[in-house]
């Protein structure tokens, strides 16, 4: 692995490999390789104790050939410009792979939101909108939640935008609370979209969920919802983790029980461990083992679902992965070097830009509802989400098969061709 690898250089490695096959013109290649616009700001905050501080903030607008920039805002200490650029690029490809009328963008505030009070969090969220307000809008750039940003954050941001612009703008942002312009099904959409793909995949191979063991890294919005969906559909969820580590049981884990303890103790392993001190006797009795996040990836299972942060499946551990299928609910969990190793081993990777596109797809439904004033039923959301996810999946599968590519390269190829077609139609690049 190259030591200088960053989220954005990892994106570029895959991009370069796929462009090799697509043979774009130099102008097309240039558009696809760098963001159209990078916005940066320092957000000032007066802390509760009266002291003053500021946080670096970004909005990267990668490409809007197919529609307004679209993508979440992340609050995380690692959310620097390189990471936000990579995530913005992935959003442009994600919206194209599922063929919804958006481009791609991403935002971030580089900070640890757990160190902020509720008042401070609201203040900094509103400051973000004030900093980038003239570059946002339902026809310009439409943010949404991402790591550590919630429906409440989206509500503050919509409110701030409407105050600043003196407008009624429900579609300026998605992932809002139901009471303030949100859509039914948005909160569970990322997991549900991935679940539809998994169902289709196992149906086609005539597999029975009862025979399939699944390990999930991450118990946030995507990973937590996925654990429930799989458990209820008869899969055996053998491992679950959060940022502090997790638990493994070959016989299966009940996500409802895990959630109860997570709520009570703040940790997925809370039923058995307090910090690093575990009740070994109780664990033995229940047939449960404590696992680190690294160990979870290498457990014996059929399906592995990274649903937390990026860069976790690397050249260092790829060879030890035992799952035959990886469904990427996180953005960027697998490095290009790991991809090569997994492909050689015959592991099928359903890539992030397809597997986790359910979130932005229901964001699109929310945007449509905001513009029309309509409220869709939960059934309609689910039906449309399933159709869009399966159309995307089948297109990628067909491309992978016909052009002898991995699913990741096929997903990139499908998306890049659609973006290139839009750029050509607009006359941005020579026809
Ligand atoms: N943050 C989510 C993603 O990475 C959702 C983005 C959106 O809804 O715009 O796909």
Features:
single chain; 431 residues; alpha/beta; Rossmann fold; 2 domains; seven-stranded mixed beta sheet; five-stranded mixed beta sheet; 15 helices; 45% helix; globular; binds glutamic acid
What is this structure's SSE topology?
Elements: H1 7-22, H2 26-33, E1 37-46, E2 52-63, E3 69-75, H3 81-97, E4 104-109, H4 118-132, E5 141-145, H5 151-165, H6 189-204, E6 213-217, H7 221-232, E7 236-242, E8 245-248, H8 255-265, E9 273-274, E10 277-278, H9 280-286, E11 289-291, H10 293-297, E12 303-306, E13 325-327, H11 336-345, E14 348-350, H12 352-355, H13 358-372, H14 378-402, H15 407-426
Parallel strand pairs: 3-4, 3-5, 6-7, 6-12, 12-13, 13-14
Antiparallel strand pairs: 1-2, 2-4, 7-8, 8-11, 9-10
Helix pairs in contact: 1-3, 1-15, 3-15, 4-5, 6-7, 6-13, 6-14, 13-14, 14-15
The protein binds glutamic acid (GLU).
Your description of this structure?
45% of the residues lie in helices and 17% in strands. The model has no long low-confidence stretch (mean pLDDT 97). By secondary structure, the chain is α/β, with parallel strands linked by helices. The longest helix has 25 residues, at 378-402. It has 2 domains: 33-173, Leucine Dehydrogenase, chain A, domain 1 (Rossmann fold); 189-355, Rossmann fold, CATH 3.40.50.720. The strands form 3 sheets. It has a 7-stranded mixed sheet with strand order 11-8-7-6-12-13-14. A 5-stranded mixed sheet has the order 1-2-4-3-5. The chain has helices at residues 7-22, 26-33, 81-97, 118-132, 151-165, 189-204, 221-232, 255-265, 280-286, 293-297, 336-345, 352-355, 358-372, 378-402, 407-426; strands at 37-46, 52-63, 69-75, 104-109, 141-145, 213-217, 236-242, 245-248, 273-274, 277-278, 289-291, 303-306, 325-327, 348-350. It is built from 15 helices and 14 strands.
């Amino acid at each position: 692995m190259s030591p200088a690898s960053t989220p954005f250089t990892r994106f570029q490695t895959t991009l370069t490999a796929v462009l090799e096959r697509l043979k774009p013109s130099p102008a097309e290649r240039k558009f696809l390789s760098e963001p159209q616009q990078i916005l940066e700001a320092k957000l000032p905050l007066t802390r509760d104790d009266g002291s003053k501080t500021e946080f670096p903030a970004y909005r990267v607008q990668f490409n809007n050939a197919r529609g307004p920039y679209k993508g979440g805002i992340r609050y995380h200490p690692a959310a620097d410009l390189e990471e936000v650029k990579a995530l913005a690029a992935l959003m442009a490809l994600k919206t194209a792979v599922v063929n919804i009328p958006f481009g791609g963008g991403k935002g971030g505030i580089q900070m640890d939101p757990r160190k902020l009070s509720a008042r401070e969090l609201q203040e900094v969220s509103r400051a973000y909108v004030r900093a980038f307000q003239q570059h946002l809008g339902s026809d310009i750039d439409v943010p949404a939640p991402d790591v550590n940003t919630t429906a409440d954050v989206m509500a503050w941001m919509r409110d701030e935008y409407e105050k600043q612009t003196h407008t009624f703008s429900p579609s300026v942002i998605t992932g809002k609370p139901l009471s303030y312009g949100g859509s039914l099904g948005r909160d569970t959409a990322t997991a549900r979209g991935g679940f539809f793909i998994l169902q289709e995949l196992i149906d086609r191979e005539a597999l029975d969920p009862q025979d399939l063991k699944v390990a999930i890294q991450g118990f946030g919005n995507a990973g937590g919802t996925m654990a429930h969906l799989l458990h209820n559909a008869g899969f055996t969820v053998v491992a679950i983790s959060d940022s502090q580590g997790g638990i493994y049981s070959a016989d299966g884990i009940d996500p409802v029980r895990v959630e109860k303890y997570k709520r009570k103790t703040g940790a997925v392993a809370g039923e058995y461990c307090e910090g690093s001190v575990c009740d070994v006797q109780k664990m033995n009795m229940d047939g449960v083992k404590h696992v680190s996040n690294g160990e979870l990836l290498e457990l014996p299972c059929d399906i592995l679902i990274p649903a937390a942060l990026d860069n976790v499946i690397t050249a260092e551990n790829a060879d030890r992965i035992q799952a035959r299928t990886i469904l990427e609910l996180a953005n960027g969990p697998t490095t290009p070097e790991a991809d090569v190793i997994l492909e050689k081993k015959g592991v099928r990777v359903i890539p992030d830009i397809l597997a986790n596109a359910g979130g932005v797809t229901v964001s699109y439904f929310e945007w449509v509802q905001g513009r029309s004033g309509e409220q869709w039923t939960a059934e309609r959301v689910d039906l449309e989400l399933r159709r869009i996810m399966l159309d995307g999946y089948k297109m990628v599968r067909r491309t992978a098969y016909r052009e002898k590519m991995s699913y990741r390269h096929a997903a990139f190829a499908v998306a890049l061709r659609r973006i290139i077609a839009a750029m050509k139609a607009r006359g941005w690049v020579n026809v």
